[in-house]
Write a structure and sequence with these properties.
- This is trans-L-3-hydroxyproline dehydratase.
- Its EC number is 4.2.1.77.
- It catalyses: trans-3-hydroxy-L-proline = 1-pyrroline-2-carboxylate + H2O.
- Belongs to the proline racemase family.
- The protein is an alpha+beta fold.
- The chain has helices spanning 31-43, 131-148, 196-208, and strands at 3-7, 16-21, 26-27, 54-61, 64-72, 77-83, 88-98, 102-110, 114-119, 162-168, 179-185, 189-190, 218-221, 227-238, 241-250.
- It has a 15-stranded mixed β-sheet that branches.
- A hairpin with a 4-residue loop joins β5 (64-72) and β6 (77-83).
- The structure holds 3-hydroxyproline.
- Residues 27, 29-32, 164, 183, 185, 191, 193, 195-198 line the site of 3-hydroxyproline.
């Protein structure tokens, strides 16, 4: 689960601004959050321009402006595609010495946040290994990288940190076969979705390594079996990096609504933090 706090945007072209919240603070980008928020903006009539069969919603995320295209038949919204910020393969074959796991080699790729991408074979595991084993191995790798390896975004210092790590089935070469992955982010949160920003970073990695061409679509599957489709759509630059705009497509669903109440004399209701 993810939280989205809606805020007025400071970019004039944006329909809405959003801060995504996780278990340790905020996220620079959340692709599955963008998919759900795109639908919400259409269904609540909040998008600037409601058009059929597709409405464009511009969402200012912490990583920058993301364009969501929401299927809309005039009554109900459907699948959402989004175009993320310029994404790029940042570093290849980075070695990290992870306590209890030894030397692990990862690629680092930016897809709205910096992701370490690591095939499950590095841990002598496969992507169907238990969620707790994945969480422990990938979480330890991410935490070690945060200590040992510094990343720098060419334009934004506030994005210059290791946000997440993704364990993959290693199927990086283009094929029509589904490729599976699992993202561990923030304070060892495990993503039930294929991870929109992670999938963006995987396409940027594959594009940077010459494994996929513009317009080729891949299907990414999460540990729950949920899928997103993604493809590189345009070559761009980000600072000196050869970057790519990635389109990700998926579905989000409503699960309920709730109302929070804060009474004047409820001290705990103002929030608390346990360490
Ligand atoms: O879909 C996404 O992009 C998010 N899922 C968990 C981590 C990422 O922020």
């Amino acid at each position: 689960m993810f939280g989205a706090i809606l805020v007025p945007p400071d970019l004039p072209e944006a329909d809405i601004g959003v801060i995504f919240i996780n278990n340790e603070g905020y996220s620079p980008m959340c692709g599955h959050g963008v998919i759900s928020l795109g639908r919400y903006m259409v269904d609540k009539g909040l998008a600037k321009n409601l058009t059929i069969p597709e409405t464009v919603v511009k969402i200012q995320c912490p990583c920058g402006l993301v364009e969501a295209r929401v299927q809309y038949d005039g009554k109900k919204s459907g699948a959402v595609s989004f175009l993320s910020v310029p994404s790029f393969l940042y570093a290849k074959d980075v070695s990290v010495d992870v306590p209890e796991y030894g030397k692990i080699v990862v690629d680092i790729s930016f897809g709205g946040g910096f992701f370490a991408l690591v095939p499950a074979s590095q841990f002598n595991m496969n992507i169907k290994s238990s969620a707790s084993k994945i969480r422990a191995a990938v979480g330890a790798t991410l935490e070690q990288l945060r200590k040992d390896y510094k990343v720098a975004h060419p334009d934004y210092s506030d994005l210059s940190y290791m946000y997440a790590a993704i364990i993959t089935d290693g199927k990086d070469e283009y094929s029509e076969e589904v490729t599976a992955n699992c993202c561990v982010f923030a304070d060892r949160m495990l993503d039930r979705s294929p991870c929109g920003s992670g999938v963006t970073s995987r396409i940027a990695q594959q594009f940077g390594r010459g494994l996929i061409k513009l317009g080729q679509t891949r299907t990414f599957e999460s540990i729950t079996g949920a899928t997103f489709k993604a493809k590189p759509v345009k070559s761009v630059k980000c600072g000196d990096y050869d970057a790519v705009i990635v389109e990700v497509t998926g579905n989000g669903y409503y699960t309920g609504t709730s109302t929070f109440t804060l009474e004047e004399d409820d001290i705990i209701g103002r929030g608390f933090l346990l360490s």
